[in-house]
Design a protein that fits this description.
single chain, Rossmann fold, 7-stranded parallel β-sheet, 45% helix, disordered C terminus
Length: 244
């Protein structure tokens, strides 16, 4: 396991990273950054995570309230600044909280695009992604995790090829104080208590795996079986041809 040295660029430590795909778990990053009292500048974040690699795609996943104008303004700004926005409408739960879970979308995109990029950078601290990260790595791609260490699941750090601690490079990704009206990421998210992600990590340690990991196993195993079947068919064709 390697870690980011804030005095150096990622690419200076590991050489050329090829085509880089960036997957940002917007809700997870927002609350982790808020816990550390940091407003993220997404242009800066994109440059830091890309290093000297070639950008394949930068995806931003978030829940939205379709009728909120300021949310749509922020997402339009993200699209115009190099991000592919993947959104899902917020759902209201019995306790009054509103959220949208895009874990499946992130994991499926990482897996389905593997092979078209060389390095994946997942910006999230969610332990649910451990199985998906392993699956992408098995396809020959380098997988890096970016997040705040205290809000990132240790198991997720352990399965990555490289961990970028955003807390150590906060000055490189922090938003400068701006004057005047501007669409802001905070327009996307409902207020949540500061210890939100820390409590979430403790819950993850004590709870059995949820349906997400099982669903991902089904998706990945089905893909593996399909590839194996194609390989067996090709092998049979070669065997029959050789006999003649």
């Amino acid at each position: 396991m390697n870690h980011f040295d804030s005095s150096n660029n990622i690419s200076l430590q590991f050489g050329h990273r090829g085509k880089v795909a960036i997957f940002i778990d917007g809700n997870n990053l927002f609350h982790a950054a808020r816990f550390h009292n940091i407003d993220i500048d997404y242009n800066k974040l994109l440059r830091v995570l890309l290093g000297d690699g070639r950008l394949f795609r930068a995806f931003f996943y978030t829940g939205v309230d379709a009728g909120a104008e300021r949310q749509q303004g922020f997402l339009l700004w993200m699209r115009r600044n190099g991000f592919r926005v993947v959104q899902k409408e917020l759902k209201t739960f019995y306790d009054g909280t509103r959220k949208a879970n895009l874990d499946v979308e992130i994991a499926v995109d990482m897996l389905s695009l593997a092979g078209r990029y060389d390095t994946a950078v997942l910006v999230s601290g969610d332990e649910d992604f451990v199985y998906a990260v392993n699956a992408v790595a098995y396809k020959g791609c380098r997988v890096e995790i970016a997040g705040f260490r205290s809000n990132t699941a240790p198991k997720l750090i352990d399965v990555s090829d490289y961990f970028i601690d955003l807390g150590e490079i906060a000055d490189k990704v922090r938003k400068e104080i701006s004057h005047g009206t501007r669409y802001d990421e905070r327009d996307l998210h409902c207020p949540m208590p500061a210890p939100y992600l820390q409590d979430q990590l403790e819950m993850q340690k004590s709870q059995p795996p949820d349906g997400f990991e099982h669903a991902m196993r089904v998706v990945i195993e089905a893909e593996i079986e399909e590839e194996a079947a194609e390989f067996e068919a090709a092998s049979e064709f070669i065997r029959i041809t050789d006999e003649h």
